[in-house]
Amino acid sequence: MRRCPAGAITPEGHDKEKCLQYQREVIAKICRERYGYDGYSACGLCQTGVPCESGIP
Fold it and tell me: How far apart, in whole angstroms, are the C-alpha atoms of residue 18 and residue 46?
């Protein structure tokens, strides 16, 4: 939960709306600025280093 940059993971579960908003506002900007990629923003950059990136936590 601490590692979720969007604050979308809580003891109650995964707030998909909050996650999607973060992807649209923050991740999309990072993709454009750093990588010149202006497409689908669900790139998974925020999932690096979280337990669910490689399996079910």
Answer: 13
Q: Could you report the per-residue pLDDT of 11-54, keeping only the tens digit for each?
A: 988 888 998 888 888 888 877 888 787 765 565 666 666 555 55
Reduced to 3 states (helix: H, G, I; strand: E, B; else coil), residue 30 is helix
What residue segments make up the domains of the chain, in order of their start? 9-52
| First vs last C-alpha separation in the chain | 11
Task: Output b/e per residue, 5-43; b: 16+ Cβ within 10 A.
Answer: ebebbeeeeebeeebeebbeeebbeebeeeeeeeeebee
